[in-house]
Design a protein that fits this description.
182 residues; mainly alpha; 7 helices; elongated
Length: 182
Amino acid sequence: MANERQRRLMQRTLDEALSPEALAELRAYLDTNPSDSAEFQRLKQVDRMLRTAPHERAPQRLAEAIMARLAEAVSARQMPRVSGLALALGLALTAAAMMPVLLATGWLLLTTLGSAELLAAALQQATALMVLGIALAEQMVAAVQTLLAANTEAVLLLVAAVPVSLLWLMRFAPRLRAQRIN
C-alpha cells in the first residue's frame, strides 16, 4: 500500500501539478510496486471518467429548498437579537482594546526571536529581575527575624494583627466596594 507521500504524488500527477523530478520519483516507485501501480491506474481511470462526465446544473427549486432548510435551522437556534448584538459589540470592543497590546507583544517577540543578542539580553534582564526579587524577599525576612528576636512582644502583635486585619477586611471591604460602584 502506498504511503502518504506516494498518494499525494499520485493526486498531484492527476491534477497535472507535479514537477519532473517528482514525476520521475513516482514512476520509479510505481515500477517497483505493482499493486500501487494498479491502484494508480484505477485512479487515472476514475479521473478520466469524471473529467469527461457531463456537468448538469441542479434545478433551481433544489437550491431554493436547501437554502430554505438552512434558514429554518439557523433561525431556530438563533440568539435573541439584543443579546446577539451585545455579544458582538462586546467582542468588537475587546478586540479593539487588545489590539495594541497584541501588536506590541508580537513585535517584541519577532524582534527578540529574530536576534540572538536581543533574546540573550531579554533573558539576562528577566533573570536579573528574578534575582533582585529573591534578594529583596531575603532582606525582608532577615529584617523581620531581627525585629522579632529583639522584641518578643512583636510576635504577639504580629499574630494578633492577622485576625484583626481579616475582620477589618470582612467588615469594611463590602462598604468600600459599594462606594466605588455608586
